[in-house]
Structures are given as structure tokens and as C-alpha cells.
Amino acid sequence: MMTLRQFSHKPETIPASTSWYLADLGEAHGKQELFTKQAPQKLNVLKEHALIESAVSSNRIEGVTVDEARIRPIILGKPHLRDRNEEEVRGYRNALKLIHEQGVKMPVSGETILKLHRLTRGEIWDAGHYKEKDGDIIERYPDGRERVRFKTVSAARTPAFMADLMGMWENGLKEKWVHPLILLAAFNLDFLCIHPFRDGNGRVSRLLLLLQLYHLGYEVGRYISIERIIEQSKDRYYETLEQSSQGWHEGKHDPWPYINYVLYTLKVAYREFEDRVGQIKGPRGAKTELIITAVDAFPGEFTLSDLERACPGTSRDMVRRVLRNLQKMRKVECLGRGPGALWRKKDNTLKKG
Q1: I need a surface site. Which of 17, 221, 222, 268 has the fewest CB within 10 A?
Q2: pLDDT grade for 347, boundaries at 50, 70 and 90
């Protein structure tokens, strides 16, 4: 809660870049209702896709992966789970559904945080419990060297720090210390610095981000996977988190790199939401447009497997069919043979329609 404590004194200035992000997000928020009411039945495809992407990406950031062929049944069906990784992906899906369905009614409380952790961690022994032993964040190098990247709050002090964090969140909203989106990003930074759990801190932090966005009236996470955007920019995520955590214990840290990263992520999500709503012509064509959007996002060459990973829950046959159509339209070209062949766009941006 060291970041929120800084903001309790109401900073005199806010970086210009932060102000620009807030202005853009204010405009996007103003359009939100218009987009969500245009064709609600067509947005169901976006909701389903975001659910799949979020469960997969948030776990993959932490090194938890599952067989691509199993993604859709694990998240949307009820198959027998084969291993621990599948259990964690299903658990994250359950936590997402809870927030999507009841988020506005769920308080940002210790009980809620422990419940989200319990859902994401499944049947493991410490699911739903704060850490019992101290544990720093260690960075390990390929040559075997390691360093302490950040010293987290001790296990003994964690419950008190978490209680303070939630109390300051409520006070910050009531007393309007700063813009609520700045407060949200500050809360997220403090949560990650406290590191209240033995494992699963990153995943719970992303769930809390979604929950708090719902409380503030920002619902883009229902249609666009914020977790997937974070995964795609995870180098920047880790870099800004490290920058903003230096000096955190003493309250002498600079929170703005990480705050701006969170705001940037939300801006990307809203921009993508507007783009995708504009592309969807009807329920039958929605997945085709999602695949085209994924192709458009590749900066260079890509493989069929790369495209499948970018569109979890979409069948291989569907991906191949869209690629063939784009090839016939001379918008992409194949540079080889077989499933591992490289593909590339013939233009910088695909022309939709």
C-alpha cells in the first residue's frame, strides 16, 4: 500500500503521458455503451473468445500451458481434467465467470481475494491462504546465476499490509485522491509488491484488475482479453514492474512507469474493442474476423501454429480455411510446404470487407 500512501497526499503533478492516457480512456468509456448496445447478440462471440484467451494467457504468463486441442473443452465444456495445468486453467475460467456475472456485487475485500486465489489454485494445499513463509522474487539466468529482483513483504506482516491496502483503496475512492484509474493501477502495483501468496499472485492481480474495472464502470474486459494483451507485452510488463518497485518498501519508488503500462493496456483493449465491433457483420462471420485480426497483428512471418495460439478455441480447420481464402484474395502468401510453413501478409495491413 506504499503507492496508495503516496497518493493519499494527493500528488501535485501527474505526468503528461498519464494525462493523455486518461483522456483517451475517458473518450473510450464514453463510447462503451454505444458499442455494447449496437448488436448485443453478435457480441457473444467476443465474450466467449475473451474468456478463452484470458484463461489461457494469464496462466501462460506464469508458465502454465495446456494442449491446444484441449483448450476449448477445458474452458467451455466439462471434461475430466488430466493434470494440474488443466486444473489451473479451468480454475481461472471459474474465477472469470464469477467476476463477469457478479463482479459489481463483489467487494474488494480479503474474503474476495482469498476466494479468487482458491479458485485459481484448485486443490493445492495453500489455495485461498496467504503465504506462511517469506519468499522473495528471484530471477534466474540460463548460466545458473540468480538475483533477488524484489524483496516481498514478510509472511508475518502480509495480513496487516493487505488490510491496509484494501482500506486505502476505499478511502482513495471516497476522498478522490487521484483519478480512479490511477488508483486502480496503484493498487495493482502494491498488491504485486506485497506478494501475499506463495504462488498465483500474478493471476489474482489480473483478476482484481478486471473486478475493479467493473466497479469503476469500465467493461472492456468482458469483450477483449486484457490478460492476452499483457502476455503480448510481458517484457514491458516485467520491466515497468521492476522499475516501479525499486524503493517501494521505503515509499521512495516511482510508480508512474507501471501505472502508465496499465493505462496503456486498457487503451489497447478499448481500441481493439472498437475495431472488432466494427468488423463483426454477424455471428457466423465473427470468428473469421477474429482470425483476420490476429493475422493483421503479426508484424512479420508466422506459422499456422502461431495463428492457432493467437486464436485459442478456434478449430484448425477454421484457421486453415480463412488462410486459404486470404491467399486466394492475394492478401497473404505461403513461403513453404506443410504445417510448419511460414506465412506472411502481402501488405502491411489487411483490407477488411
Answers
A1: 17
A2: confident
Which DSSP helix (H) or strand (E) runs through 37?
A: helix 16-38
Q: Hey, what amino acid is at 277?
A: V
For 58, residues 6+ apart whose C-beta sits below 8 A from its C-beta are 92, 202, 203, 206, 207, 227, 230, 231
Mean pLDDT of 141-167: 88
CATH topology of domain 283-345: Arc Repressor Mutant, subunit A (1.10.10)
Strand, helix or coil at 138? strand
Backbone angles phi, psi at 137, to 5 degrees: -90, 115
Query: Edge to edge, what strands does the sheet with 302-303 contain?
Result: 302-303, 342-345, 332-334
- The residue whose grid cell reads 501478409 is 345
- pLDDT tens track for 37-63: 766 667 888 899 899 999 999 999 999
Domain boundaries, the chain: 2-279, 283-345
Q: Are 262 and 180 in contact (CB under 8 A)?
A: no
Question: What is the DSSP code (8-state) at residue 197?
Answer: S
Identity at 144, one-letter amino acid code: G
Classify residue 126 as exposed, middle or buried by CB count within 10 Å of its CB (0-12, 13-18, 19+). middle
Amino acid code (one letter) for 338: G
Between CA 295 and CA 45, with CA 275 as vertex, the angle to 5 degrees is 80
Q: Which long-range contacts (CB under 8 A, 24 or more apart) does 7-11 make?
A: 7/172, 7/177, 7/178, 7/182, 7/183, 7/186, 8/168, 8/171, 8/172, 8/177, 10/177, 10/178, 11/178
* CATH class belonging to 2-279: mainly alpha
- Per residue, what are the HEC states of 294-346? HHHHCCCCEEHHHHHHHCCCCCHHHHHHHHHHHHHCCCEEECCCCCCCEEEEC
The pLDDT tens digits of the residues spanning 87-141 come to 999 999 999 999 999 998 999 999 999 999 999 998 888 989 999 998 877 777 7
